Amino acid sequence: MTGQGALSRGGGPLIEVRGLRVDYGLGPDAVHAVIDAGLTLVSGSVLGLAGESGSGKSTLAYAMTRLLRAPGIITGGQVLLHGGTGPPGEPAAQPGAEPAAQGAEAAAQGAEPAAQAGVIDLMTADERQLRELRWSRIAVVMQSAMHALNPVVTIGAQLTDVLEAHRLRMDRTERRQRAVFLLEMVGISADNLRRYPHQLSGGMRQRVMIAMALALEPAVVIMDEPTTALDVVTQREILTELAALQRDLAFAVLFITHDLSLLVELADSIAVMYAGRLLEHAAASDLYRAPRHPYTLGLLRSFPPLHGPRKPLTGIPGSPPDLRTPPPGCPFHPRCGFAMDVCRTEVPAAIQLRDPGNGRSAACWLHDGTREVPAELAVPEPGTPSPGAAMEAGTGTETGTRPGAGTGAGAGTEAGAETEAGAAAKLAAPPEPAAGTAPVTRQLTAAAQLGEPAAAQDATGTMR
């Protein structure tokens, strides 16, 4: 499954994850936490990673950056980082060149990395290469700011420590000025540089983590539930600031959360993870209005619509599987209302549902082309004309641009209408494309415009 949603803007891939596997422990008792994960993060895009707690989202993110702690073990796969990985003077990567060999040359020359075209496999990079790439090319906003920040070191010292390690030509005054700028960039005054983490509120600590992640203006920022445990007002403020920063600095984002309703607005494309496997990937609007995997459908039915008549929330019965003893076949089949005999014995591979360039896929036997797909999982995608709409093509009428207008999205998601934040985002986003064209992706900024009450509702998360 690949994050191709932003390719319509002309951006190239920044990170490619290929067949990544992560275990906890060794031998027959090892827990398979991530199984053959594949993602592509495109320049300037926002890729959302959603799933229930324990599905492997954070493990995948930390494995990608080689920050995984014991007993976690990466047992296979590649994580290819494109661009800015070669030392000064190193030529661009040639087709067919081995990433590991390029990484060895970089280490041998002993120079600081520069913005040269190149590709490196982070799984084979040595410690020196990883130290040079972290924060300068890839930054991480940890899930718990209170535990990520050093409690006995001031905020200013922690910010300048990053600059001292990676910006060797900066003197002490310049580092302090940069630290002041970073705090002000996230809405914190400079007098907080002398404070310790426990002297700041939860929202301020999270802002400090974001400022630290952006200190070296990286191309990729991985955000692991950056608004967890914050009140809804603070969540909205932080997401609004993230929107402005992503717009100004044009970095790509891997945004991890269990709140799918939030990702529908923030992300260009969304990958859904369950029991260590990626089950579905699609553009955000397509996934919201026309889910293709039963698990995604269950997640969408777990939060209430903000428009239209009230409907009971069905949710997903049961609990996620124990990864020590996972069920045979599809990991979701014990909770799936559409489970078949094949689901109980064989694991489905990711099936491309459209032109591979669009990147929509689902790991479900219902879409293997030999079975009738249930109506809930066969809702026309936004911009796909229905049979009746095809007769109106001469009038320029486009089907699927409004929730519930000829797409049947209400039947597929039980929402019946868009969230309030979805409506606000549509005001700022361009029209959705007609069938057969590349999808138009949304900027992170579309969901967090100040002065729009609807956007504020989504940025704070949907109450469940």
Overview of this structure, please?
By secondary structure, the protein is an alpha/beta fold. Helix 8 links the parallel strand 7 (220-224) and strand 8 (252-257). It has helices spanning 57-64, 99-109, 127-133, 145-148, 155-166, 172-185, 202-213, 232-249, 260-266, 284-289, 294-300, 387-390, 409-413, 420-428, 453-459; strands at residues 13-24, 31-42, 46-50, 72-82, 119-121, 138-141, 220-224, 252-257, 269-274, 277-283, 351-352, 361-362. The two termini are 29 Å apart. An eight-stranded mixed beta sheet has the order 6-7-8-3-9-10-12-11, sandwiched between helices. The chain has 15 helices and twelve strands. Helix content is 28%, strand content 16%.
Q: Main attributes?
A:
464 residues; 16% strand; 28% helix; eight-stranded mixed β-sheet; disordered C terminus
Number of strands: 12
Number of helices: 15
User: What fraction strand?
Assistant: 15-25%
Radius of gyration: 22 Å
Overall pLDDT metric: 76
Physical arrangement of strands within the biggest beta sheet: 6-7-8-3-9-10-12-11
Major sheet characteristics? 8 strands, mixed
Principal-axis shape: globular
Spans where pLDDT lies below 50 across 5 or more residues: 1-10, 84-116, 387-464
